TrEMBL record:
It comes from the Bacteria. The lineage of its organism: Bacteria, Pseudomonadati, Pseudomonadota, Alphaproteobacteria, Hyphomicrobiales. Residues 4-123, 141-256 form the VOC domain. Pfam families: Glyoxalase. This is VOC family protein. It comes from Roseibium aestuarii.
Amino acid sequence: MQGIFVWYELYTTDPALAAEFYSKVLGWTTSVNSMAGFDYTMLHVPGFEMGTAGMLPRPQEMEQAGVPPHWIGYIGVMDLDAMVRRMTAKGSAVHFGPADIPNIGRFASLADPQGAAICLFEPGPMDGPMPDEPAPGTQGTVGWHELHAGDGPAAFDFYAEMFDWQKDMAVDMGELGIYQTVRRDGPAFAGIMTKMPQVPVPLWAYYFCVDDIEAAVDRVSTNGGTVLHGPQEVPGGSRIANCQDPQGAMFSLVEPARA
């Protein structure tokens, strides 16, 4: 799990409404764990005990700082403290942690050197075998990760140094520059680009798989979300759409290319 995305979280203003929205759009089921004085909602692909993502209320300090509802991803590491030291030595800033999650592991929240938020996760010991996971491309799983960086090439160099990421296909987008896809000893799982001027700050975007993107964007609109762009076909044959949930968090959808 070193150097790959292992978890996703939504910080939102209304977890109950957000759970209802995403369940209708992506088909997730939910379960709730009470921890540290608040409810943590687990989001599951139907039929799988292991969650795909989690959801929690936006902390007061985020609200006071003007941080909107948002999704964030966790990259797995084997030595959290050592990775935090490496990242901060290269210009990252620590937002929170490292801290323990009882009976689960340890985590830290950081901004990369250009300001994009990202979390790290070091798992704790497992009592038994890992639960089964849905196959890649299953509706409700995360099918793509996308970094809108202040400087795309410099961002790739940073993540490659930290996590041994490797270049895959590069797509020339003309005036928008190069869209560099990324792999780590396997299929491409992310893309890195220099952000467009209308993107206010560097950020990571997350694409959730759907079986039929036309039907999925209809579900977004019908249930109070907003479709910001798409559906659009992208190189490789996948179709994507960029959306916003009713509480204001940005998310994206991807219908994987059919064979």
